[in-house]
Each structure stands twice: as structure tokens, then as C-alpha cells.
Design a protein that fits this description.
Blueprint lengths: L10 E6 L5 H14 L4 E5 L6 H10 L7 H13 L2 H9 L3 E5 L2 H9 L5 H5 L10 E6 L2 H6 L11 H14 L4 E5 L4 H18 L11
Parallel strand pairs: 1-3, 1-4, 2-3, 4-5
Helix pairs in contact: 1-9, 2-3, 3-5, 5-8
The protein binds 3'-deoxythymidine-5'-monophosphate (2DT) and magnesium ion (MG).
Length: 211
């Protein structure tokens, strides 16, 4: 509101395996925050709307083949091309609820066997999230949830390796939420985590991802 000094928005990231409920929970959290009068936007990576994003989308649909390192760098570039806008939104007071970020980038590429340090390097300098919520669902349970679509990576053996790598990435900004609980319970936990985070980071400067 005009005149009153309000702080920056929060960068809240949701991570998890395919079918862990990220997209539904992002949507629910966003409408809750908006209902509370909080300025917030829902973002997702990959952002398939850009030129780079279209290359990624074709790769995921198995319509194109790309070398593992090439696609890894495209995913990273897709975040870099959004960095400036992300920064201006956050500094302008808009909270961003982001469906996947650099952790997906590392966990999925490392699950192919790429070196983890190599996978992390291109994302150094992106904006560091204030909160990472990991929706923890067993790969078997996720696969049962209406099955996977036909995209690359949507296979249980691969998802198990992704889960292992996610596990090794957890740091102090992560909150693990049991994604197998009823949707409303998960939603309630996310509301509380996000609300606290938004309040706490208002006066904190933005920082860069260093891993
Ligand atoms: P969605 O199903 O959420 O659209 O994701 N992925 C994602 C990567 O391999 N690297 C990345 O950096 C990101 C952001 C996860 C599509 C797939 O893309 C994978 C699933
Ligand atoms: Mg998917």
C-alpha cells in the first residue's frame, strides 16, 4: 500500500519427484497467499515459453535428442534468462512460488551419472531461494498416482536415482514435507512455512546461490 515501506518478496521453491504434488500445491499456495492480500506469482522451471524452453520441451517430449551436458546447460540457461526479472519482482515486493529450480537441475542430471560438482557449477550466481520445500513421496507411491505421462525421466528406476540425489542436496533452507499425507494437510503445512518465510525475509538482502 502506498506510503508504507514494505520489504522484498520471498523466493519459495517447491521440489520433488514427478507426481509428488508440486504443481497442485503451488497453485493452492498461490491462491491462498493472494487471498491473504500478499503480492505473489507462480513460476515454474523449465519455463517452456522461451526459445530455450522450447528446445527443452522438445527434448522432454522425445522429439529431439541432446547430449546430457548440453541439455543440462540449457536447463541452467533457462533459469539465467529469467534471473533479472526474478530479481526485479522480488525487490519490488512480489513473492515467487516456483515449481522446480536448480535442485531439479542437479538431481536429474546427476541421476544420469554426470559429476555433481559439474552439475552445480552453471547455477552458481542465480538467486538463492529463501525456502525450499521438498515434497517427499516414495517413488513407488508417486508412480501409482495416476501414472506418469510419456515424458523422458518419468520412469520409476530413474526417479529412484533422482530421489537419492535430492537427498544429498538438502541444506538448511530445506523443509521436508511428507507428500503422502492428505492434500489438505500438506497444504496447511505449506501455508505456515511460506507465511513465516515471507515475514522473515522482508528485510533480508537477496543472496546468490553458492551451494
Ligand atoms: P516438469 O514435469 O515439472 O515440467 O519438469 N528437469 C527440470 C531437469 O532435468 N532439469 C531442470 O533443471 C529442471 C528445472 C524434471 C520436466 C522435467 O524436467 C526435469 C522433470
Ligand atoms: Mg513432469
Amino acid at each position: 500500500d502506498a506510503g508504507s515501506k514494505s520489504g522484498r518478496g520471498a523466493l519459495v521453491v517447491l521440489e520433488g519427484l514427478d507426481r509428488s504434488g508440486k504443481s497442485s500445491q503451488c497453485a493452492r499456495l498461490l491462491s491462498y497467499l493472494e487471498g491473504q492480500g500478499c503480492r505473489a506469482e507462480g513460476w515454474r522451471f523449465p519455463d517452456r515459453g522461451t526459445c530455450v524452453g522450447q528446445m527443452i520441451s522438445a527434448y522432454l517430449a522425445n522429439e529431439s535428442q541432446l547430449d546430457d551436458r548440453t541439455i543440462h546447460l540449457l536447463f541452467s540457461a533457462n533459469r539465467w534468462e529469467k534471473r533479472a526479472l526474478m530479481e526485479s519482482k522480488l525487490l519490488g515486493g512480489t513473492t515467487l512460488i516456483v515449481d522446480r529450480y536448480s535442485y531439479s537441475g542437479v538431481a536429474f542430471s546427476a541421476a544420469k551419472g554426470l559429476d555433481i560438482q559439474w552439475c552445480k557449477a552453471p547455477d552458481v550466481g542465480l538467486i538463492a531461494p529463501d525456502l525450499v520445500i521438498y515434497l517427499d513421496v516414495q517413488p513407488e507411491k508417486a508412480a501409482e498416482r495416476g501414472g506418469y505421462g510419456g515424458e523422458r525421466y518419468e520412469k520409476i528406476e530413474f526417479q529412484k536415482r533422482v530421489a537419492d540425489h535430492y537427498h544429498s542436496l538438502r541444506d538448511s533452507t530445506w523443509k521436508v514435507v511428507d507428500g503422502s499425507l492428505p492434500m489438505e494437510t500438506v497444504e496447511e503445512q505449506l501455508r505456515e512455512l511460506a507465511t513465516n518465510c515471507i515475514q522473515e525475509c522482508q528485510e533480508k538482502p537477496l543472496t546468490n546461490l553458492t551451494w
